[in-house]
Amino acid sequence: MKKTIFFTGFLLSIVSFTISSQVAMGKWNTHFAYNSVTQIAQSDNRIYGVSNGALFSVDKLDANIEFYSKLSGLSDANISRIEFDSVNKQLLIIYDDGNIDVLSSTGVINIPDFYNKQMSSSKEVNQIQFYNNKAYLSCDFGIIVLNMVKKEVSDTYYIGSNGAEVKVLNTAINNGTIYALTASTIYKASITDPQLVNYEFWSTTTDLPGSGDFQKISSFGGQLILLRGGYLYKQETNNSWTPVLPNIIVTNFNITNVSLNVFTPNNVYLLDNLYNSNQVNSLGTISDAEYDARNNIYYFAANSSGIISYKLVANESPVITYIKPQGPAVNMPWNMTFSGKKLFVVPGGRWAAQNNTPGVVMMYENGIWTNILSSIIQAKTGHPVLDFMNVAVDPIDNKHFFVTSYGSGLYEFKNNNFANWYNCSTPSSTLETILPNDPFNYTRLDGAIFDSQGNLYMTNSYVANGIQLLLANGTWNKLSYNQATLMPTLGSILISNQNQNQKWVTSVRSKPGLFIFDDNGTVSNQTDDQTVFISSFTYPEVDNNGVIKLNSVIPGSVNTIAQDKNGVIWVGTDAGPFLFSDLTNVFNSGYTCSRVKIPRNDSTNLADYLLVGETIQAIAIDGADRKWIGTKTSGVYLMSENGQQTIQHFTVSNSPLLSNNIMSIAINPVSGEVFFGTDQGIVSYQSDANEAGSSFDKVYAYPNPVRQGFKGLITITGLVANTQIKITDINGNLICQTVSNGSLATWDGKDVH
Predict the structure, then answer these.
(1) Which residues lie across from 549 on neighbouring strands?
(2) How far apart are CA 458 and CA 511, in angstroms?
(3) 396, exposed or middle or buried, with CB in 10 Å at 0-12, 13-18, 19+?
(4) CB of 28 within 8 A of CB of 71?
(5) Residue 255 pLDDT greater than 70, yes or no
């Protein structure tokens, strides 16, 4: 039965309070990791930091943190290098794909020349050197020169023998000479020579100190500083070289204002222009530093500790402040799942073997990220914690959950803390390892899921018993199926919403397909089970003569599986999506699947299969039964309920999406916010659909109040699915009518007449 709600006398009169925490409809959010701050740069008022390719800044005065991404105008994601141009008051941003942005108080200007250049060489930029309104970029093939006023590439220098490419580690400019350092050679030329584009105008430097590879060269107080073979040297006025901090192994150094900052594995040495040294220790690993001479404060890029403010105070101990934005632990959302409003993210991964990614559990709830790090778990287990694959959350308590590992077994967490580790050596556990002589690295699990009785299923790959079961009473059981034994790389388990006894298991690769078993409601008794393995996806097709024939596709990989509200199972493969319905007949011979056909609408009566040939890596179903489909190379698609209409197609070029490689998708069932896990991190989008309840619950609208000039969408939530919404003016005239997507309905605030 359809339900209709009338809003009379203008919509906003129905709500007397403001919903301040709700994300605006159609808006995006980024969720970056800030646990590896490796670079910093400073302007007059701010310290900029890069962590895992994400950019943020800290106000020097009040420590206010500001974040930067495509949402704030940046052109790309995954920043590889930054440096501040103090002359022109702008931050130069280099991305790992060669794209370049310039950030200033007036906004962002993109310099796409390097990004657009077709070349076989790497586009890695190893260092930035500013001089006379130019930026010299040390690259893996030579030097690129940017005009920082015109915002364009002005020159490219190939300085090797006969103009060959050489990997330039960094450049330095000292007393009118530009030096370009490689691992084995230091090239030099006059910085004012107009022929620098010609390799013949470059020469090599001789009589250099030390031995081993060259690592870095720079200018400090009119003297060259050279790092070679782990030792630091300075060039004297007579061109001889003397050691700096002799007998100390140096990993890197930088120069900021009047300070030479020298980094070792455990300490930092701060040297003034007279080479007086101040040793800083007990701050962890430091990889970069900036000195604010005006306030006598050093800022350190301190990796997992964020940015450290180190203020020198006369005759007192330094004042040390740690600054780190909150966020997920890493930008690797291999798998994401919601339990109510709580998001769980794990950064594992596998293909032919595990990825050896540190096992971390990242949780997001009420706008706050909480991380359980692998080091904490390893301290209790005494064994490396790697490749967390998925999370199964207790339906009764979302602080109690299990995490599978593609190598070391099953981990249980209670009250959001590590509680138990189950592996092949755990008493009563039936988990199996591939290699008995290396059990804790080859117990490969995935696909953990609870059934309605509180039993926990999971897949156990490359072993005789591919399905493992931890019963609600705490005992273990292994399910031995011949078909499962033939499928070495088992993945996800889906429990059918039409029949809880029926489980669908993906075989990811190496004999990819679907393994389906029905336990007949007796989870510990296999004698009455039904099973089938589908390796060839057979589907009917009508040819041009109206004749129905059967076609088959053998997928190269089966990557994801989801079931919609009508019971149809959507399977994502490297050949596109396939649909499985009529699930009661899945064990019968002749069972077929289907593919969505989309008419071309070009008067040819021809049609194409939905996303044919695309590698589908994630599928999620929203509250309106629409399909969010994530691909490996083409971003994410929002398809209508039947898959025939493309409602949205988000890519890096038309949205704040961080990458077109979508690894996972999860939808907040309460708010409808869609989280996209990409290979560059997590970004979320406030969709216009969420899960609906069976009754009207706390119906409200937001934003409220709506200010004059508001041009966004007004959202009504708390509805029953497919509720008809009719909005009238104060005189009862109908000005808008719509139908809810799940419990959400939207209105643009305009009179439809």
Answers:
(1) 541
(2) 19
(3) exposed
(4) yes
(5) yes
